[in-house]
Amino acid sequence: MAISDMMYKEAVKLGIKSHKGGTYCCMEGPQFSSKAESHFHRKMGYSIIGMTMATEAKLAREAGFHYAPVSLVTDYDCWKEGEEVDQHQVSETMTKNIHNIRRLLLKVIPLAARMGCRNHCPEFIKGALLTHKENFPAKTYAKLKLILG
């Protein structure tokens, strides 16, 4: 079972409101979208807008880590008229989200560890580096040895 499927299944079991699938739009932050940007994102068919997941996913893949994105949604932006976003609402919702993600990770991490890897993930780093290991400075290689092999 894919980690994303496992996370969704366990979130549902825990009663955490969840959606599986969709299109992620990565924007530069930290900031709120303007109303025009929000309408554009919705018209483009994006399901969720965030600031970090694209970079995280690429780095995790290069390092051969198992990765399943979980977006902790804080607001509907302009997608629900009358529910415009403000900092207080975002902070309050984020506190609830942190509680839920902790509960979810406590369930999923042991399950994923027992499942093991069937996708040869640690081998992905071999194609991610342009610099040969022997050309790394010794201190840099020592820091990265765990993921470089």
What does this molecule look like?
- The chain is mainly alpha-helical and 149 residues long.
- The protein folds into two domains: 3-118, Nucleoside phosphorylase domain (Rossmann fold, 3-Layer(aba) Sandwich); 121-149, no CATH class.
- Helix content is 48%, strand content 4%.
- Strands 1-2 form a two-stranded parallel ribbon.
- α1 (3-13) crosses α4 (87-115).
Short description:
The protein is built from five helices and two strands; from the N terminus they run H-E-H-E-H-H-H. The chain is mostly helical and 149 residues long.
Which CATH architecture of the largest domain? Answer: 3-Layer(aba) Sandwich
Q: Order of strands across the widest beta sheet? A: 1-2
- The average pLDDT score comes to 83
The CATH class of the largest domain is Alpha Beta
The major sheet is characterized as:
2 strands, parallel
**Shape by Cα distribution:** globular
Poorly predicted runs: none
CATH topology of the largest domain: Rossmann fold
Order of helices and strands: HEHEHHH
Indicate the proportion of strand residues: under 5%
Q: Determine Rg (CA atoms, Å).
A: 19 Å
Q: How many strand units?
A: 2
